[in-house]
Amino acid sequence: MKFRLGLIIGLITGFIIGARSGRERYDQIMAGLHKVRGNPQVKQAADIAERSTRKTRAAAGNTLVGTAGTIRERAAR
């Protein structure tokens, strides 16, 4: 319950702050984000993170597919 309340408060706060700051601030934030994304060091770190988690993500996906199949079979009984 505490998590939900915190999430709701966070969403409302973000909406209010976003509504007050307007389009100009949004454009500033997006320009900063694009600048960070364009940084070669950030791209390199993202590539390393993607490569290091590839096998784990694939295994998790296969597990989810297998579990979904098991649930489907049991529900059909």
Quickly describe the structure:
The protein is an all-alpha fold and 77 residues long. It has helices at 2-37, 40-76.
Walk me through this protein's architecture.
With 77 residues, this protein is an all-alpha fold. It has one domain (2-76). Helices cover 95% and strands 0% of the residues. The longest helix is centred in the last third of the chain and has 37 residues, at 40-76.
List the helices and strands and how they pair.
Layout: H1 2-37, H2 40-76
Q: Which key terms come to mind for this protein?
A:
mainly alpha, 2 helices, single chain
Which ranges are low-confidence, i.e. pLDDT below 50, for 5 or more consecutive residues?
none
The number of helical runs is 2
Range of helix content: over 70%
Distance between the termini: 35 Å
Radius of gyration: 21 Å
How would a textbook summarize the main sheet? Answer: none
What is the beta-strand fraction? under 5%
The global form is: flat
Query: What is the average per-residue confidence, as pLDDT, rounded to a whole number?
Result: 87
